[in-house]
Amino acid sequence: MIFLYIGLPLIVAAVLPLVGKVSKKVLPDVLANGVFLFLFAYAVTGARPLLAGGALRQTFTWFGEPLGIQIAVDGFSLFLLTVIALVSACVGLYSISYMEHYGSKANYYALLLMMIVGMNGLVLVTDLFQIYIFMEVAAVASYALVAFGREHAELEAAFKYLMLSVVASAAVLLAIALLFGLTGSLSFAAVGEGLRRLDDKIAAGIASALFLLGFGLKAALVPFHAWLPDAHPSAPAPISAILSGLLIKVSGVYAMTRVFFHVFGLTPALSEVLMWLGAVSIVVAALLALAQKDMKRMLAYSSISQVGYVVLGLGIGTPLGIAGGLFHLLNHAVAKSLLFLNSGSVQQATGTRDLDEMGGLAKRMPITATTNLIGSLSISGVPPLGGFWSKLLIIMALVQARQPALAVIAVLASVLTLWYYLIIQRKAFFGKLNARWAEVKEAPFWMSAATVILAVLCLALGLFFSSVVSTWIQPAADGLAKGMGM
User: Fold this and answer.
1) Would you say residue 486 has pLDDT above 50?
2) Which has the closest alpha carbon to 36: 111, 78, 91?
3) Rounded CA gap, 458 and 190, in Å?
4) What is the average pLDDT across 367-381?
C-alpha cells in the first residue's frame, strides 16, 4: 500500500491529458482533488497504524524476481507525506477557481501530480540514487509549472530556476558517485557503514560539501538562495504555495537531513555548519524581505528566512531541537501556503502585487484579510499560534545546547518577521480603501475555502500544540533519530 503514494498520482497524471480532451474543467478538478484528498485521508487514518511495528518496507519484484528497488516509511517520512498531502489538498481546492483564467487545467493538474509523485518518492526511497531520481522528477515538473503562464517574467524565472537547479543536481550527483566509488553501495545504511569502516575524513568531507551545496540550493539557504525570489513570485499562486510550502523543504531540507543524519551522522562540525547556515539565512533574508514592495517577493524572502529556522533547529541535533525544527517545518508549510494563496487572491482581484498600490482591501476582501492576518501572526511567532510554539522550542533547544548568541538571533529575527508582515497587513488591507479597488470582490468560494481551512489549521496547531507534538512531531523526530534500519 505504500506504493499508492507514488502510483496513484502517477496513474492519474498520465490519464489527465486524455481526460482533458473530453472535459476541460469538471473531470480534471474532480480527479485531481480526489487524489489529493485520498492521499491525505490515507496518511492520517490508514498509514499510521502500519508503523506500530517500526519502519514499514516494500520491495518491488517482477514475476517473482527482485528488482532491487525498495521503498520504506518511518515516522519521519510519514510526517512529510502527511504535510505534502495536506498542503496539496488545499492547493487543489484553491486551483478549482484560480486556474479558470489560465486554461489547460488538465495539463496543470497532470504537472502538479507529477511534482507530488517526485516529492512522495523522494520521501519514501532508501538509497541515494533514488533520491536523485525523484528529486529530478519533482524539479522538472516544477520548472514547467513556474512557466505555466508563459509570460516573459515567468519564462525568465523558470530558466533561472532551471540553471541553478542544474548546478544543485550536478553537485548531488557528484557526491553520490564519490560515495558509490568509495563504498560500492548506494543504500543509506550500507554507505554509512562503508564510510565508518574506511574512516576517510577527506573524502567524506568532500562528499558532505557537495551535498551541502546541492541540497542548500534546493532549500534556498543563504548564500544559495538567488533563484527563489524570482521563481516563486512568478509562478501561479497555487504553485508558489507548493514551492515555498513544500518543495524547498522536501528537495532541500528533508533530503539534506536524511543524508546527513543517516549516512554521515551529525558530527559536531556539521552541526555547527548547519546552525550557522540557518542563522545567516534567518537574518539576511528577513532584512531583504523588509526592503520589498512586491507582496509575493516579500513572501519569497520570508520563506528563505523561515527555512533557516527549520535548519537551525535540526542542526542543533538534540531531541528538543529536532522536534522544534520539524514543528516549524509543519507550521511554515501551512502558514506560507496560506499567505501565497492569499497573495494570489489579491493579485487576481486587483491585478497588482505592488503593496504601494493597495490599501484598505479588508473592506472588500474580509475573508482574505482575516486569514492573511492569522497566517502572518503564526509565521511571526505570536502566541498562541503554531509558529510561536515551534520557535519557542528551537530557542529553548539553543539555550539548552549552550548557544546563547544563536538564541538571541532567533528572537530578534522573529521581531523582524513580525515587522514585515505588519507592513503587508497595513499596506494591503488596513487604512482607507484606495478608490481603484471600490469594485473589488472577495475571492471565489473554492479559493476562500482553501484559505479558511489553512487559517483554521494555523490556529489549531497552536491551540492543540501538545497533542500535535505527541502525535506527529515526536514520532517523526524518533524516526529521524533511529533511521530506517536498513
Assistant:
1) no
2) 91
3) 40
4) 95
Place of cell 507525506: 81
Q: Contact, 355 vs 398, CB < 8 A? A: no
Please report the beta strands in 195-343, taking only residues with DSSP state E, as ranges in sequence order.
none
Quick: pLDDT tens for 74-98: 888 889 999 999 999 999 999 999 9
CB 450 within 8 A of CB 88: no
**Alpha-carbon span 210 to 192, nearest angstrom:** 16
Query: Around Cβ 399, how many Cβ atoms within 10 Å?
Result: 14
Average pLDDT of the residues in 223-235:
79
Give CB contacts under 8 A, 24+ apart, made by 360-363.
360/429, 360/430, 360/431, 360/432, 360/433, 360/434, 360/437, 361/428, 361/429, 361/433, 361/437, 361/440, 362/429, 362/430, 363/433
Distance CA 172, CA 164 (A): 13
- C-beta atoms surrounding 35 within 10 Å: 25
> Which residues are 70's β-sheet partners?
59
Q: How far is CA 297 from the centre of its chain?
A: 17
The torsion of the CA quartet 446, 455, 90, 149, rounded to 10 degrees, works out to 70
432 phi and psi angles, rounded to 5 deg: -75, 140
CA distance 216 to 127: 19
CA Rg, the chain, in Å? 21
Q: Is 441 helix (H, G, I), strand (E, B) or coil?
A: coil
The pLDDT tens digits of the residues spanning 11-55 come to 999 999 998 888 877 899 999 999 999 999 988 886 666 666 667
DSSP count for the chain of H helices, then E strands: 20, 2
Q: Which pLDDT belongs to residue 103?
A: 73
Size of the chain, expressed as the number of residues it contains: 486
The grid coordinates of residue 223 equal: 548564500
Q: List the one residue out of 245, 259, 316 whose CA is nearest residue 94.
A: 245
Mean pLDDT of the chain: 89
Rounded CA separation 368/441 (Å): 11
Q: How far apart are CA 477 and CA 329, in angstroms?
A: 12
Q: Is 236 helix (H, G, I), strand (E, B) or coil?
A: coil
DSSP 3-state of 275: helix
Identify the CA nearest to 106 among candidates 215, 21, 17: 17
**Whose CA is closest to 224, among 251, 201, 262?**
251
Q: 2, 480, 20, 422: which is closest to 255 by C-alpha?
A: 480
